[in-house]
Amino acid sequence: MSEAVKDSASLCCPPHCYFPDSDPNEGMTKVASADAGNVFGIGDQLLSPSENERKGSPDRKGSPDRKGKGSPDPDPDGSGRFLLKVDWGRGEGVSYYPDGWLRMWCGGGTSGVFSKVGSPSSSTSTSTSTSTSTSTSTFLTSQTPIPKISYTSFLEDRSSLFSSLTSLYHGTCCIIITSVPPLPSSVTTLATRLDGSPTRSHAQLYGQTFSVKSHHHAHNIAYTSSPLPPHQDLVYYESPPGLQLLHCLRNSPTIEGGESLLVDVFRQADRFRVERPDMFETLRRVKATFLKQREGVNMVYRCPHFRVREGYVEGEGEGYIEGEGDAIVDVRWAPPFEGPLDISDMDECEVEEYYQAYRKFEEMVDPIRHASEHTSENVKEFRLREGECLVFNNRRLLHGRRGFQGVGERHLRGTYCSIDEGLNVWRVMQREQGIFYKGRAYGNGSYD
Question: pTM of the prediction?
Fold first, then answer.
């Protein structure tokens, strides 16, 4: 039977449940009842009531059938907010679940948590809901424009921040912030806006921020004028940075070369799985060695180049080529920062297979060493201008640059954001707006 919640003290959730609304009683929220055994199988009758149900008589009561299904009461103020009441039985108490929360976790009314390509829940919302679940996203290619936003809008306009975070985690995975003041502290200001943290992540090796410019006796290839193959930063950490920021303080017009390179490594990895499944499996199975060794530093981390998630298929937009099997949720690729392969439990044939697979995948992602059709088509190449700050998802995109020469200076100021803290800011904003993005792996082994 439907009823109104009047006492917040009556709300009771099992330990594994999450109740997002701070005030579930606002506007005399209506409640629908259901048997606990049918909570996650109640279907669209409860989650998406028809317009007739929405406009029914105010004293109409939801009538659960013998299977425990029920319909919400009409909402007197037209807000469309309902609660599902679940009696767990055996004296374990009663729980209340907002309809928006249920939609977020069921993919918009379909069974299962994740929306797949072509599913009814992809990029759709019901007219009876205040929440939207979407799975449409964009891959970065050579022809994809990078979203741009002004420094002022990014800092002052909350909707601009939300669209920027959506691009970074669910779109092209990169943005460019323009008109950034030429101050060493500007990149920190931007990073704090992105992840809400007053301090920078992964600061032990390079500090809160770092300068990227060419100088003698560099201990990192990034601090030279040499070509820098596409890679991810700090892959020798168990959890590499989520976002990287590079603020261009100087890029003299007399400098020749130095173009920035971005590669969507998830897209290329999935193509690799389709075209060379045997080689994909080799790079998924064999553990590579990622390391950083210099005075005062000895970091080593071993893991495969690819990791997949069983039973999860990533839903993407038009042009997405979906590989066989389970979706890729983590890729590690950083040739400049890799060490010797551990062959202690490998035979000679397996070692040869690894290096063959390694070279073949490198051809797909490295336009510096391998100028093939694959790389030219899927590499975004551009010149970063003074006053621009490139922000990109370090877990999904590889970055690099062309070699450069000439009189003048090329100077970038960089920093990192934790992927956990950045995703937290974005997810909180989704919850505030009732928009929930689904079907995307972020590169950290997890997904929504």
Answer: 0.74
